[in-house]
Specification:
With about 350 residues, the chain is α/β, with parallel strands linked by helices. The chain contains 15 helices and seven strands. It is globular, with a radius of gyration of 25 Å. About 35% of the residues are buried. Bound molecules: guanosine-5'-triphosphate and magnesium ion (MG).
Length: about 350
């Protein structure tokens, strides 16, 4: 909570004069209200639940902050939002730079808002942990979606580790859902382990691809194909259509080599042109089909439960690690132990045991 300003301001020094319209108490509190930089936690919760985008953005800023007080506030807000969260479809989208992720999300997102959906677009960008940049910095490719009142676009958080960034994104999902967003799209460019991180927080995972020259499967990590619920070949337009159709055949054939999924869903290959907005509805219909199937066979809920358990462990590990390495004593002793290792005077295991015993 912020301390109230106790010293008198000029606005109060009007004794004897009946307050004019601009200095009456209502206007004063209005002006003060606008001046107040940080709304209270309660106000933010109230705002989020009433689908106020400004409150949502502010709460996300708290989630992303490094300041401990902010993080405490963020936790209170997240806990209050939890009962309102979970009612959504979470979709992960990955693909190499230039494949058309932004163009696709713009077309797909617009399609969904036209259907009356409320769409939040978030991103996990491992490169931003180093450069502090962000893949959704290029909001220009999502010009229409940015202006859409039913859409909310948030550039990726920056942080020191993928785990940290991913945790913030997960918390942001909860806030967006509490603010009434029923479709959450999470984009990643697929560097490092970021697809795995995204996969572990979404219901449906979509891999965007380009038609190549018959070597479709080259250069794709096997794990990604295993994670994908759909492979969408983008830029299936103009001279590219024929190649895209061939690629579809080849991907379909390749997918048959993979074992059945626990979801009982057979991953599908689809063609689209994000630029010309073709094939977009088919992809949405496919996702709905997936949701129906997995809700019927309970996989949908099981998967979310598993994800929550995974994130519980993940968060504890992250926190323990941070706490451990931030302790002054450990910092000092670690330095010493590292020197001993350099001089071959101890082994990594003995040193670790000693440090952990502190
Ligand atoms: N012909 C054609 N071009 C497309 C299509 N989708 C995207 N493009 C073009 O491909 C280029 C890259 O598209 P982006 O949407 O920026 O790709 P991205 O995957 O977001 O790229 P990064 O943000 O760099 O990872 C742009 O020039 C788009 O206009 C499509 O369906 N057909
Ligand atoms: Mg992009």
């Amino acid at each position: 909570m912020q301390k109230k300003d106790t010293h008198k301001t000029a606005l109060h020094e009007k004794k004897g004069v009946s307050p004019s319209e601009i200095t009456n108490s209502k206007s004063i509190s209005n002006i003060k209200g606008k001046r107040k930089t940080q709304p209270s936690t309660k106000e933010l919760i109230h705002g989020i639940i009433n689908e106020d985008i400004t409150a949502l953005s502010r709460a996300i800023t708290l989630v992303e902050s490094k300041n401990l007080k902010h993080l405490e506030k963020a936790n209170t807000i997240i806990n209050a939002c939890l009962p309102k969260a979970n009612n959504s479809v979470r979709i992960g989208i990955t693909g190499v730079p230039g494949v058309g992720k932004s163009t696709f999300i713009e077309a797909f997102g617009k399609h969904l808002t036209r259907l009356g959906k409320k769409v939040a677009v978030l991103a996990i960008d491992p490169s931003s942990t180093i450069t502090k940049g962000s893949i959704l910095g290029d909001k220009t490719r999502m010009e229409d979606l940015v202006k859409d009142r039913k859409a909310f676009i948030r550039p990726s958080a920056s942080g020191d580790s993928l785990g940290g960034v991913a945790r913030k994104t997960r918390e942001t999902i909860i806030l967006c859902e509490a603010a009434g967003f029923d479709t959450i799209i999470i984009e990643t460019v697929g560097v490092g382990q970021s697809e795995t991180a995204v996969h572990s927080m979404v219901d449906f995972f979509l891999l965007l691809k380009l038609a190549g020259a018959g070597d479709e499967l080259q250069g794709i990590k096997r794990g990604i194909i295993e994670m994908a619920d759909a492979i969408v070949i983008n830029k299936a337009d103009g001279d590219n259509i024929k190649r895209a159709k061939l690629a579809k055949v080849e991907f379909n054939r390749a997918l048959q080599l993979y074992p059945d999924k626990d979801s009982k869903w057979n991953p599908k290959v689809s063609l689209c042109s994000a630029l010309h907005q073709e094939g977009i509805n088919e992809i949405w219909e496919m996702i709905l089909e997936y949701i129906t199937l997995t809700k019927e066979n309970n996989f949908f809920e099981t998967k979310r439960n598993e994800q929550n358990k995974f994130w519980l462990i993940q968060t504890i590990e992250e926190q323990l690690k941070t706490d451990f390495f931030n302790r002054t004593e450990i910092k000092k002793e670690l330095k010493k132990q590292l020197q001993l290792i350099e001089k071959n005077k101890t082994t990594p295991f003995t040193a670790a045991e000693y440090l952990l015993s502190l």
